[in-house]
Amino acid sequence: MKYHLLVLGCQMNMSDSERVKSVIEEMGFIHTDNEDEADMLGVLSCSVRQKPIDKVYSRIHKWNKIKNRRNVITFVSGCVLPDDKKKFLKLFDFVFDMSELNDFPNMLKEYGVVTPMSLQSDLGKEKNDDFNIDVEKASTSFSLNPVKLKPASSKALLPTNKNIYKLWNVKPHYESDFEAFVPIQNGCDKYCTYCAVPYTRGREVSRPSAEIISEVKLLIENGYKSITLLGQNVNSYGLDKEEEISFAQLLEEIGKLGNEIQNKCWVYFTSPHPRDMSRNVIEAIAKYEILGKQIHLPLQSGSDQVLEKMNRKHNVDTYRESINYIKELVPQATLFTDIIVGFTGETDEQFAKTMASFDEFKFNMAYIAMYSPRPGAQSFQWIDDIPKPKKKERLQQLTDKLESFSGKYNQSLIGSEIDVLIRTTERKTGYLSGHNEGKIVTRIISKDTLLIGQIIRAKVTKASGFSITAEIVE
To answer: Which among 356, 365, 362, 387 has a CA at the least distance from the CA of 435?
Structure first.
């Protein structure tokens, strides 16, 4: 039997997908990129914006047409809002929270699905009544026979389980042998008015630090070159527990691992919150070579009035304080951010303050999004009063300003030698693509695909707004 998994949204969903694949493949399913040959079709949803949700509805309508021709199992998990969950129940065979992933095999069994592993554990039977599969023949080839599945004994929605530890206990099926995502936290307590995450992932829960350190240690020992610590608000790590180390202390422990193991690797984290960004976090980054000199710190708006309406719990002054720490302690670090344009009621004057913040902070990269109301979030009740053309105009203005500052920084790198992690081949023939320690996209003049997954030394020869070009230093 084969399965296909569509992953939408952020890096957290990418990380969760590695554990989903572990559970599915433990049942004997084999991954395929071809939906048309899959016996199981699943999607990890994202409710941050409407576009990913539209993709979920589009895909399930396609998959349900496939079900008219042959037996296919469908499921959805990931970030799902309550209203969408009710609708998905009528469209998917299974709807479950990520914290209930371990129960998925049992749900399949209750539904009447025979998996390759269940067949192997039932070899004493000549046939399986659910699909009329001959076990002896199925030992080399597993497929669903064209018969109707048994109805589920209960609704396909698993009971909500706030205990995310079950998910973290699943050994991930890493998608890469040189880049990895390590979850350290799940959920969020900030309740920004535009955000649906607290309603899809719940309150903040920190993963035990011993497990995190153990996973990171194994990855470094196995030669991974890039590791990203993941959470909705990583720098409030540990605050939900009475006995747990802080985020800064966690970085210290990982830094010590880097000194001990001495394998070239960059460890990053995303996303922190300006309210919880402390000086000792920046001190740890400055102290240890393994901690990547790139910091992603979401600003969202340069207007204190808009930030207050967003319930961000920080203002531009507190953000500026964190940036000053970075410039003082890690002046070589690149700075990334997140921005929302066209938030409800955003005036031209307030947007101008966001433009001014780009002049001041000179971001290397900004992920700029046009505001879209999300059901469940507080701002969904407010009138979305900024016309879409105005949002697009503001997005373009910020993008142009970003490219100007990013381009100047990239130009300053010409002639310098840098370390580059080669990640993939580029569309243009003759180039490889990767990034330097500051996560600036770097094009390498080479056709040697054996370099993918390695950190190499290169000299910067050209620069553009959002990338640099370099040649390998022999």
So the answer is: 365
- Computed over its alpha carbons, how large is the radius of gyration of the chain? 24
Nearest CA to 252 out of 207, 228, 283, 208 is that of 283
Look up residue 387 and give its two tokens: 């016309």
So what's the pLDDT on residue 201?
A: 84
What is the CATH code for 417-472?
2.40.50.140
Task: Region of 55 please: left (phi>0), alpha (psi -120 to 50) or beta.
Answer: alpha
Structure tokens at 243: 């006995």
Domain ranges, ordered by start, for the chain = 2-138, 165-411, 417-472
What are the φ/ψ torsions at residue 462 (nearest 5 degrees)? -145, 165
Question: What's the CA gap between 193 and 267, in Å, rounded?
Answer: 31
Report the 10 Å Cβ neighbour count for 324: 12
**Spatial contact of 99 and 163, defined as CB atoms under 8 Å apart:** yes
Structure-block tokens of residue 339: 């921005």
Rounded-to-integer distance, Cα 20 and Cα 26, Å: 10
Maximum Cα–Cα distance across the chain: 75
What is the pTM (predicted TM-score) of this model?
0.85
> pLDDT tens, 165-216?
888 888 998 989 999 999 999 989 999 999 988 888 888 999 999 999 999 9
Residue-wise pLDDT tens digits, 368-379: 999 989 887 899
Q: Are 190 and 235 in contact (CB under 8 A)?
A: no
Matching residue, tokens 């081949």: 425
d(CA 199, CA 191): 9
Q: Which residues of the chain have pLDDT under 50?
A: 119, 121-161
What is the topology classification, in CATH, of domain 165-411?
pyruvate-formate lyase- activating enzyme (3.80.30)
Name, in order, each residue with C-beta under 8 angstroms of 347's C-beta and a sequence gap of 6 or more. none
Q: Are 45 and 9 in contact (CB under 8 A)?
A: yes
